[in-house]
Amino acid sequence: MQKFDKLTAIAAPMKIDNIDTDMIIPKLFLKTIKRSGLGKNLFDEMRYTEDGAEKPDFVLNKAPYRDAEILVAGKNFGCGSSREHAPWALVDFGIRCVIAESFADIFYNNCSKNGILAVPLPKAAIDYLLADAAEGLELTVDLESQTVKASNGKTFEFEIDPFRKHCLLNALDDIGLTMQSEKSIDTYEGSQKAAQPWLYAGA
């Protein structure tokens, strides 16, 4: 996955509470196990009409938000089913950071495993950043300092678990974390193969 350190980008305002994973990526598109190609269907039912035409009033169909890398939303973002396709779709569209009043736990965990920084902030901060985003202004999210900076320099601090922060800064998903112990794994397998060769018969 791509590491996250510091991002300055357009933020799309989505002043909606309880955006669930079916809104993010409808169940119709869950047949694939590929992480790529889902961005075109992100918020599909909100972005398109039944005949596939763009809805002109939806935020991601407008300039400059077509190129947004940050979403600013209400509370309980990512609720509903635990589908990992939701962060896959966000990443494939180009979203690297979601700032919201609160997040569903499973979605929050899935974000960090896919290189998305999910930032919880109080409602007052969200309202301030939504106003900035509505003007098409850029926000700066700095994971190292754990801050979100508005266009006028006003800064909001956020909390994040140190281990989650480490993984995002170093682009470590579950496989990456495992591979950090590759030498130890090889040493263990070598000693086991010597002591219990029958386990490796036919390998």
Helix and strand layout, with pairings?
Layout: E1 6-14, H1 21-24, H2 44-47, E2 70-73, H3 85-93, E3 97-100, H4 105-113, E4 117-120, H5 123-134, E5 138-142, E6 147-149, E7 155-157, H6 162-169, H7 174-179, H8 182-195
Parallel strand pairs: 1-2, 2-3, 3-4
Antiparallel strand pairs: 1-5, 5-6, 6-7
Pairing-aware structural class of the strands and helices?
A: alpha/beta
- Counting copies of identical and different chains, the oligomeric state is single chain
What fraction of the residues are assigned to beta strands by DSSP? Answer: 15-25%
The CATH architecture is: Alpha-Beta Barrel
- Give the CATH superfamily: Aconitase, domain 4
Radius of gyration: 20 Å
- Which residues sit in consecutive blocks of at least 5 with pLDDT less than 50? none
The succession of helices and strands, N to C, reads: EHHEHEHEHEEEHHH
What is the overall pLDDT average? 91
User: Per the principal axes of the C-alpha atoms, what is the gross shape?
Assistant: globular
CATH class: Alpha Beta
Query: How does the major sheet shape up?
Result: 7 strands, mixed
Looking at the structure, the CATH topology is Aconitase, domain 4
Q: What is the helical fraction, as a range of percent?
A: 25-40%
Whole-number count of domains: 1
How is the largest sheet built, in terms of strand order? 4-3-2-1-5-6-7
Strand count = 7
Q: Count the helices. How many? A: 8
What is the distance, rounded to the nearest whole angstrom, between the alpha carbons of the first and last residues? Answer: 31 Å
